[in-house]
């Protein structure tokens, strides 16, 4: 656990120190890779995240998905799990207890996680085998613990290439992603 905590602190600090111009350029490159990918083109129900603390931005991916008439969802934290609420370009977002923007939780606009086609996932670090280190609360791991059943959404991490590490400490509870997209390439299992 100490290794995870140290790695998390180092990578978060490095991400926050990234020059804003580089962050914008890298996010644009990640966006272009995602939008041109088969997993994005084939998806109709897409969950994104609201970027914070230097994470790769999903703003342009959201705009492109809405332009292509895809259904888009943002996570809402509820009882240590994530619910996914439908959003559009007019959705009002408010900060949750972690400072992350969320839509209002309206039951009629919630989709079960297993019904999503594509989930874009934030991360702090990753390895070449698509293992992910998150913020440490396990929300994505708990929510997608069913991942691997025949019908499941593609889980795609978005990161900067410098977030890749040779060895990532992990437990059996940590889920593996299908792909990780950086400004340099797409990693896959």
Characterise the protein shown here:
The protein is α/β, with parallel strands linked by helices. It has one domain (2-188): Rossmann fold (3-Layer(aba) Sandwich). The protein contains five helices and twelve strands. It has helices at 2-16, 20-36, 38-41, 59-67, 139-143, and strands at 45-47, 71-78, 81-87, 93-95, 101-103, 110-111, 118-122, 125-126, 132-133, 154-158, 179-181, 186-188. The strands form three sheets. An eight-stranded mixed sheet has the order 6-3-2-1-7-10-11-12. Strands 4-5 form a two-stranded antiparallel sheet. A hairpin with a 5-residue loop joins β4 and β5. The longest helix has 17 residues, at 20-36. The chain is globular. The mean pLDDT is 93.
What does this entry show, briefly?
The protein is of the alpha/beta class. The chain contains 5 helices and 12 strands.
Topology:
Elements: H1 2-16, H2 20-36, H3 38-41, E1 45-47, H4 59-67, E2 71-78, E3 81-87, E4 93-95, E5 101-103, E6 110-111, E7 118-122, E8 125-126, E9 132-133, H5 139-143, E10 154-158, E11 179-181, E12 186-188
Parallel strand pairs: 1-2, 1-7, 7-10, 10-11
Antiparallel strand pairs: 2-3, 3-6, 4-5, 8-9, 11-12
Helix pairs in contact: 2-4
CATH superfamily: NagB/RpiA/CoA transferase-like
Strand content: 15-25%
Number of strand segments: 12
Low-confidence stretches: none
Q: What class do helices, strands and sheet pairing give?
A: alpha/beta
State the major sheet.
Answer: 8 strands, mixed
Strand numbers in spatial order across the main sheet:
6-3-2-1-7-10-11-12
Radius of gyration: 15 Å
Shape: globular
In helices, the fraction of residues equals 25-40%
Q: Into how many domains do the coordinates divide?
A: 1
Can you count the helices? 5
Distance between the termini: 24 Å
Report the CATH architecture: 3-Layer(aba) Sandwich
Give the H and E element order: HHHEHEEEEEEEEHEEE
And the CATH topology?
Rossmann fold
């Amino acid at each position: 656990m100490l290794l995870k905590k140290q790695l998390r602190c180092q990578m978060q600090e490095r991400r926050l120190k990234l020059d804003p111009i580089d962050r914008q350029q890298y996010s644009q490159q990640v966006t272009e890779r995602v939008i041109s990918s088969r997993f994005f083109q084939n998806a109709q129900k897409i969950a994104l995240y609201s970027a914070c603390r230097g994470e790769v931005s999903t703003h342009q991916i959201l705009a492109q998905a809405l332009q292509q008439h895809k259904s888009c969802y943002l996570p809402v934290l509820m009882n240590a799990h994530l619910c996914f609420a439908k959003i559009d370009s007019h959705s009002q977002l408010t900060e949750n207890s972690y400072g992350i923007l969320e839509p209002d939780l309206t039951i009629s606009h919630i989709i079960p996680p297993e019904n999503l086609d594509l989930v874009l996932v934030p991360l702090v670090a990753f390895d070449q085998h698509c293992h992910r280190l998150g913020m440490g609360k396990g929300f994505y791991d708990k929510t997608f613990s069913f991942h691997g059943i025949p019908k499941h959404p593609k889980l795609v991490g978005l990161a900067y290439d410098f977030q890749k590490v040779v060895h990532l400490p992990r437990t059996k509870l940590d889920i593996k992603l299908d792909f990780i997209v950086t400004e340099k390439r797409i990693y896959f299992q």
